[in-house]
């Protein structure tokens, strides 16, 4: 559907993206991955048409509908949540107006046997079908199902958008995109502002969606559950894998190792050549050979090795004094802000050594209960902290509590004692502070960098209980793995508030779900919680579509019985469209196969395997690919002409 052709994004001499090409096919489920700053968000913007590449082009068939969710957005104001979400159906309102015009024109016509009259009836049938396919019969139901699936309550739907925080308003934008039913979803970190239930609902929605999905996410579970293809951006190039994220990480390690061997071989070849030039530079009898070797050196395309964080940083929390058996005991705990009751008579017990997860929709009281345990807010009920308990607390605003005048290194050096001081730089490296970064002042760090630094400080202090409120925000996958491993090895007690299922799986052995002013305990960990939860909103959504399909079939049968001639014309038209679509699909498969083979050939050449047969095959494949791409573009044009007939 979308063809990216030799796209480059240049900043002076630096190429963020360097002549990349690939196809986005129907029903593709693509995860874009790569280091921070590799160009993932930039590529999404180019696909969405909101940014132009420095070089190259993106071919998008006319009429293709794209739904793009950026990381940051200027939000609309002035409407209720429901009314704002309904703007996704503006095309439905336009269709309804167009149908009214067609009905009026039909009523004024008397040339019932003419070709133009039949064409008008056929157009009316097509527009009616389109209207039913867009869910015009149940717009209100669709809006409620999607908004509730993304975490809004019934009473929220009539509140004005500006009453909500930025995270909730991003959910409204996401709802509008889902309701618009585009041909391609382009989603940049869509789970950033979602809780665990909303993420599960969104997964289910996207898994059953008939269009294509291209997404950027640091949520490994979300990627694995949705994507079947992974495109990595590294050093300006792309590597296209027809596999899910976890399988990609395995294949990537193999590729890096091959790349490293090719690099070493090339370096040896370069050194040997340079040695030859240096040895015989001033010998007249070797002048021709020396000049030949100099030209060879100039022509060599230098292999770059991607920086691979292969070393596993062994990070441990500092040992602390053993606490009593009961760490936290709460009975009949209640908290209200005025008339708004957040928690009502909840009970919980946290025992020494337990790893407990607080989960649930935003606003249900998870952070409120944490603040009650930390004695930061007043509350009703009885809450006891156990004997010898020393709590290390990571709040969502922990980054704001750092001393802005200190450097990164000094900030952690203040709390590091004993042998751990020898590992400070390694630990900072594990949390993405390396080289000159450790000398930066806290005041110049971004919000994400401050959050990571606050987490490092927590690692270095001797606590026997850790309470972490959304600790994985702003952490990449590798850093989350480092933190998770450290928490699993931690011998004390952990209470963690998080919506990151991959982070919680295998870590939490008990779950408290927050809902309806209370909490519910699940002893089987996060997997048991996810299994037990019934996502009723999505079941409603699934049940809604069979009814709509039946309604569409009834409409189609009525249309056919009214005019058999229009039916036959439409049947032939559909056959031609289907034939064109099959040809396009076949070409897309051939293009994908050629791109893979070309990539394999380039890999061999990068390793130094170059011969006449390989070069000949490589040139032939490149020419064949170019011909296929031209044929694909021509056939897409033909398909657009067919569709334009009606």
Automatic annotation (TrEMBL):
It comes from the Bacteria. GO terms for molecular function: ATP binding; ATP hydrolysis activity. Transmembrane segments: none annotated. Keywords: ATP-binding, Coiled coil, Nucleotide-binding, Repeat. Residues 246-276, 570-642 form a coiled coil. The keyword Mitochondrion does not apply. It holds the Pfam family ABC_tran. Residues 2-260, 328-541 form the ABC transporter domain. The keyword ATP-binding applies. PANTHER family: ABC TRANSPORTER ATP-BINDING SUBUNIT, DRUG RESISTANCE ABC TRANSPORTER,ATP-BINDING PROTEIN. Belongs to the ABC transporter superfamily. ABCF family. YbiT subfamily. This is Probable ATP-binding protein YbiT. It comes from Butyricimonas faecalis.
